[in-house]
Design goal:
Number of strands of chain A: 5
Mean pLDDT of chain A: 95
Distance between the termini of chain B: 25 Å
CATH architecture of chain A: 2-Layer Sandwich
Helix content of chain A: 25-40%
CATH topology of chain A: Ribosomal Protein S5, domain 2
Strand order of the largest sheet of chain A: 1-4-5-3-2
Oligomer: heterodimer
Shape of chain B: globular
Shape of chain A: globular
Radius of gyration of chain B: 17 Å
Order of helices and strands of chain B: EEHEEEEHHHEHEHEEHEE
Number of domains of chain B: 2
Number of helices of chain A: 2
Chain lengths: 97, 229
């Protein structure tokens, strides 16, 4: 079990709270809500240790095209990077008003 | 996060003699596997104990079947390929449910103890279903694989639409069991979590042979989701 935190500059308001994904092997839960300031914050709890750089790569890619001031909580159960990106995109879509 | 993509090919139809994701295959010979990478140290002993592999979701490579080897630990998984002629026998999740071997020797482990109640609830849906994951592997091989914290992983065939209200009712019925029941529906678009369908998001994630995909409606293949710009 490992906890990771990342921060990105942000400029766009977030519409509403969103909760996507499921608790289950190879999947993850994503909770996204307005951060209340001009920053995006991501907090990850994962059952699989040692993937910090992979998480950074996925998030760098996401925040190169998403600029929402979101506070994001991730509970990961060993999802692949592809699944992680899809769930994050899905949470962003659900958070649009 | 992890590297391996678990599972197998999508779609509920089962052509004669074919294999589907989550089927268990008995190896005709211990050396029949073609590893994707050098086999980890635990693999040979594990395969001698239980010469059984799980069909994964992966793009086909000729006639070779994508399979995974389960180790004793959660992190022990190993991807390989198997020639169809090296398959001695196939065990489907539905066959494990019908055989109901958990009734022969009662277990106190929650994931196994929950099977009787899960059987009643899932049989009442009229859909094909069966145990997968650690429970399926233990029932098929007889090798202890279920731990005190294991979920009961279940596959349900869903060739026709399962309405969100039905998904919620099924989820609620399974919620009171001895173990957490993790249900994956095999839809025409791929494997979709019952819990996700029940929540009715704008899109759901389907696990396919080409990796996970977001789809607006798993029973309308081709109705893909817009990606972010």
């Amino acid at each position: 079990m490992e906890t990771l935190e990342f921060r990105y500059p942000a400029r766009d308001p977030v519409g509403r709270r969103a909760h996507v994904g499921v608790v289950g092997s190879g999947d993850l839960e994503v909770l996204l809500e307005p951060s209340g300031d001009g920053e995006a914050r991501v907090r990850i709890r994962t059952t699989v240790d040692g993937y910090g750089q992979v998480w950074r790569n996925v998030l760098d890619r996401l925040f190169s095209r998403y600029h929402g001031a979101a506070a994001i909580e991730v509970n990961d159960f060993g999802a692949t990077p592809g699944m992680v990106l899809l769930r994050l995109e899905q949470a962003i879509e659900e958070s649009a008003p | 996060m992890s590297h391996a993509e678990p599972g197998g090919r999508a779609g509920p139809a089962r052509p004669e003699g074919s294999v589907l994701p989550h089927d268990l295959l008995v190896l005709a010979r211990p050396d029949a596997l073609e590893p994707e990478s050098p086999p980890p140290p635990w693999a040979p002993a594990r395969l001698r104990l239980a010469p059984l592999v799980v069909v994964r979701r992966a793009a086909p490579r000729g006639t070779a079947i994508p399979v995974g080897v389960r180790g004793a630990e959660r992190r022990e998984r190993f991807a390989a390929w198997l020639a169809p002629q090296a398959v001695a026998a196939r065990v489907t999740p539905e066959e494990l449910a019908r055989a109901a071997r958990w009734r022969e020797r009662r277990s106190r482990l929650p994931a196994l103890a929950a099977l009787d109640a899960a059987f009643e609830i899932l049989a009442a849906t009229g859909l094909g279903w069966g145990p997968v994951g650690a429970v399926g592997f233990e029932l098929a091989s007889g090798v202890p694989s279920v731990s005190a914290t294991s979920d009961l992983d279940v596959l349900v065939r869903a060739p026709a639409r399962v309405p969100a209200a039905s998904a919620r009712a099924l989820l609620a019925a399974l919620a009171g069991l001895a173990a957490r029941v993790d249900v994956q529906l095999e839809t025409p678009a791929g494997g979709v979590a019952l819990a996700e369908l029940a929540a009715e998001p704008r899109t759901v994630v389907a696990r396919t042979a080409a990796g996970p995909r977001r789809v607006a409606d798993p029973w309308q293949p081709g109705a893909g989701a817009e990606r972010l710009p």
